[in-house]
Specification:
Blueprint (H helix, E strand, L loop, with lengths): L2 H13 L33 E8 L2 E7 L2 H11 L7 E8 L10 H6 L3 E6 L6 E5 L6 E9 L5 E11 L14 E3 L2 E3 L11 H4 L24
Length: 221
């Protein structure tokens, strides 16, 4: 490149317009969409409570919530025996008639016998399996020391499990024809005695009636 060519190149560079200043870049914060809260029951209610519900003749479901104050009270009552104490759910067998003679404390004190189910401190519910149906029970949640001393933190409601067999009494058979209850023929009753189950076929059934169709099944053919 000659001197003249170099001077011409430098002249063109000097006359080039200055570049535009850099624009300010807008920085927007990252927004993360959070899902809406799921409707449902809360995990905690902030109250000490023990609830017992019968599931079937041989099973009861018990769930609970304990506040720290109740745990501290039990710990203070056990004193040095707290070390090694086991949290248990104690079931007391009571009689239904005793409900009319006193409150839960009175029924627990006069219970015929009781049994314990060991429950861990991280549990909040337990299924208690029973040995026979028609049991009337009250539960207490607490701690049992190594020496066998038990201090309750909370007491449940009284619960009674149902029977595991049909109710006694005279069977009453029913025959529905064209939306009306008619007398059941004696031969239609399995192993039955006509006199024990209803009137003769030529007599009107004393409970005859017409079921309205809006009940969902009455009146259908």
């Amino acid at each position: 490149m000659t001197v003249a060519q170099l001077q011409a190149a430098l002249g063109r560079l000097a006359t080039r317009p200055a570049s535009a200043p850099a624009r300010d870049i807008e920085v927007r914060p990252l927004v993360v969409a959070t899902p809406p809260p799921v409707a449902g029951l809360p995990w905690r209610y902030g109250v000490t409570n023990v609830i017992a519900l019968p599931v079937d003749p041989l099973l009861v479901h018990v769930y609970w919530e304990l506040l720290p104050d109740e745990v501290a009270r039990v710990r203070g009552a056990l004193g040095s025996a707290w070390d090694g104490a086991q949290q248990v759910l104690r079931a007391y067998e009571v009689t239904a008639a005793s409900a009319h003679n006193g409150d839960g404390a009175w029924m627990v004190a006069h219970s015929r016998h009781h049994f314990d189910s060991d429950v861990g401190g991280d549990l909040s519910s337990y299924y208690v399996h029973l040995w026979s149906p028609e049991q009337t029970l009250i539960f207490e949640l607490g701690w049992r020391s190594r020496a066998g001393r038990f201090v309750a933190a909370a007491r449940s409601n009284m619960v009674r499990t149902p029977r595991n067999a049909p109710c006694g009494g005279v069977e009453r058979w029913m025959t529905v024809r064209n939306g009306r209850i008619v007398t059941t023929p004696p031969g239609a009753i399995p192993g039955g005695d006509a006199a024990a189950h209803g009137p003769e076929p030529d007599e009107p059934a004393p409970w005859s009636a017409t079921f309205p169709a809006h009940r969902g099944w009455g009146g259908r053919r």
